[in-house]
Write a structure and sequence with these properties.
CATH class of the largest domain: Alpha Beta
Oligomer: single chain
Strand order of the largest sheet: 10-9-8-11-12-13-14
Distance between the termini: 14 Å
Structural class: alpha/beta
CATH topology of the largest domain: Rossmann fold
Number of strands: 14
CATH architecture of the largest domain: 3-Layer(aba) Sandwich
Shape: globular
Low-confidence stretches: none
Radius of gyration: 20 Å
Number of domains: 2
């Protein structure tokens, strides 16, 4: 196995390599004066099972477009030089939110990104918590491995559950399946009923509407409000307010990917959410170190999930 990380000193990639007991393989990245880049492996990849780790979130240095181009060109390079198989390990997949046409002449960004991966010869892709799992799986022609973030949050949920009422809620209709799967898993793990709730929310042209109607029983419950990502935080914050008005005792926001863009620092400082839990798929570099949101933020690692997936993948390839 060869494992590359295209981002220097990436803590996630290094932790993944440590969990798998491998050393990150060296590569060279050369930046030309006009902004073009050249990436090449510093070992011969011929015949190897190669894993390239690169999370496609923007900043603090490169945009999602830069990172996507780096990943695609590096994969093409190792394929050109004889790699037997190349797997893209992408904790956060850019453009996954645009998975359908909702306006006239809309793009379908997820499908276009999948076509780019197919074009450079990716054998499989491993990601954490797609915006829409079915759309993600259908967009790619190569095998896909989708890791559910709620598996990372299980231990935290078990610790806070106590003996009182517990509920899992989706902040919008699109996340119902995600929340129901976690609810079912928690019921099995805790050995007792866990309630479910959904909040009405719609988005058009980037504008949110709805968010006041709660369907489900949350009276007196600790509610785990689960989403795939936090961008500005408006969806989670609206959901938390609605759940509080419906009688929830406590609301904990859980999301795989914490982007924290725009005015997230101000929105999420509100008391509606007592705690925010995200994975390490995206480092929370946009949040001020001394801000109120940092005080309620808990980052749990998705590395064990990825290590298990890579280990199983490599083992099946060897046999």
């Amino acid at each position: 196995m060869l494992m590359f990380s295209l981002e220097p000193a990436n803590p996630f990639a290094q932790a993944l390599a440590n969990a798998l007991d491998v050393t990150l393989t060296l590569h060279e990245e050369r930046l030309f004066p006009d902004g073009e880049r050249k990436l090449r492996p510093l070992v011969d990849p011929r015949g190897a099972d190669v894993y390239v780790v690169h999370s496609l979130h923007g900043g603090p240095i490169d945009s999602p477009h830069d990172k996507l181009c780096q990943l695609l060109m590096f994969i093409a390079t190792v394929k050109d030089h004889g790699a037997a198989r190349v797997t893209a390990v992408v904790p956060y997949l850019a453009y996954a939110r645009k998975d359908q046409q909702t306006k006239p002449h809309d793009p379908v960004g997820l499908r276009y990104v999948a076509q780019l991966f197919d074009a450079v010869g990716v054998a499989q892709i491993i990601i954490l918590e797609a915006h829409n799992v079915a759309a993600f799986q259908n967009a790619f022609r190569c095998p896909t491995v989708h890791l559910s973030a709620h598996l990372v949050f299980d231990e935290m949920a078990h610790e806070i559950a106590g003996t009182g009422p517990l509920a899992v809620a989706s902040p919008d209709p699109g996340g119902v399946k995600r929340a129901l799967l976690w609810r079912e898993g928690l019921e099995e793990r805790l050995g007792r009923p866990v309630s479910f709730a959904m909040i009405d929310k719609r988005r058009s042209a980037g504008v949110l509407s709805g968010g006041q109607l709660v369907a489900g029983e949350v009276e007196g419950a600790t509610v785990l409000l689960l989403d795939d990502l936090i961008a500005s935080g408006e969806t989670l914050q609206r959901g938390a307010v609605a759940l509080r008005h419906a009688g929830a005792k406590d609301v904990i926001g859980c999301a795989a990917h914490g982007l924290f863009v725009d005015n997230a620092t101000e929105l999420l400082a509100n008391d509606g959410l007592s705690r925010l839990v995200v994975t390490d798929s995206v480092p929370p570099f946009r949040l001020p170190e001394d801000g109120a949101v940092r005080g309620k933020l808990h980052v749990v690692s998705a590395v064990p999930l990825f290590a298990e997936a890579v280990r199983a993948s490599h083992g099946s390839w060897l046999h």
